[in-house]
Automatic annotation (TrEMBL):
Pfam families assigned: FAD_binding_3 (PF01494)
GO molecular function: FAD binding; monooxygenase activity
Keywords: FAD, Flavoprotein, Monooxygenase, Oxidoreductase
Protein name, UniProt field: FAD-binding domain-containing protein
Lineage: Eukaryota, Fungi, Dikarya, Ascomycota, Pezizomycotina
Source organism of the structure: Cladophialophora immunda
Key word Oxidoreductase present: yes
Amino acid sequence: MGSITLPISLQVIVVGGGISGLSAAIALRRAGHHVTVYEKYSADADAGAGIVVGANAVKVLRQWGLDLEGAGMLKYKAGYILEGKTLERLDFVYGEGSHVNDEKSNGEPSYMATRSDLRSMLRREVERDAPGQGTIEIRYAMEVLDYDPEVPAVRFADEGWKAADWVVACDGIKSKAARIVSGGENPPKATGMSAFRMLIPDEKLAVVKEKFRQDHLIQEKFDKNNGTIWFVRGKDKQLVVWWTCRFGTIQAFDMLMPDNENYASSEDWTARCNKQVLLDEVGHWHPLFQEIFRAADEDPLLWKVCSRAPLDTLHKGKLSMLGDALHPMPPFRGQGGSQSIEDAGALEMIATYITDKADLPKRLEILDRVRVPRYSCAQIVSTIRQDEANMEERYIEVLNQCRKWFEGEDQSHLKSRAAFQQWLLSYDVREAAQRAVSTAT
């Protein structure tokens, strides 16, 4: 009988302790590796507002045994476009019977959450004992200065170079790894839009709800059980996205506004601006929004919406990139965080049962084949707003740009908006990655 070759455990550095980095660490531990996560900020640092966790990402989290409802997430059941001045319903954009597929056809629901709740759920998973798997250690307040893709190694501001068998950069849109992997300067580009973001506890809005108690159209917006996201359209491409999260106790708002001289946004996800700036921006809207935003205790976060043309690889040498470091995208399709979790689902499968360090380059090529078409299409389609006129024509135009990643393959998912959305949301990335590894080996 021949001898059995056993898998080895690699020493892996993951840079970034956000949604992408924590997901990557969980994936690598599940694959049997020893992971050290280096996070720039302190352990208690947190920011960001709401997030939609798409059905494609939910599959990964469920397969990892995570309890989304227990973390306070609510099922996303329906989405409507409203007119900003009157709150009149203009279109139905998500849910059973709509032209965007629902839970039944996607295999899982999508969820409405706060970024903090999603990150906390991942943190709990990282910190739990995991017998029979690898290990995870997290170190905080570790600022990265540079990467070496060949050693591979990471240079930190306070502790110099640290080497490993593999480095995975999950350190966001300003990652220094992007220049190395892409082979040149490739900074994210501003889209001309900025996002004001707020989380407002439900009790802060009690006075607002009372003021409009006779208006049933307004009262339904606060219903904790309807699972609805409201896309409220204003003038000049203004868009407010509003949903309920955290067991129905928090109202999340993303206000997407064209850049103008009244405020200066940045790529810093912790930056805030004076609340009056936002109140001025929505001054012509229905009075409800003035009342809601005045009720908030904190000034809104203000983030410059940026994107980058898709990269044709996610690695160089033994340095890989995942999440926003790799594929920053506008928030219009709600896929930024979901693609980061998809990255991790694929990572787990390609990192499982590595028997020799020399196998890593081959595995990274497989990861490219699995991930590049997916995140590239998500980036391109994420330029389409929910409230665009001629939506179907816009989808066809954009989907035609995606065909180059599927030459000689089935392209039926690129024929229409509905077909693409089902391909996007019903996808099982772990199954696809496992199949790719089996085929290649």
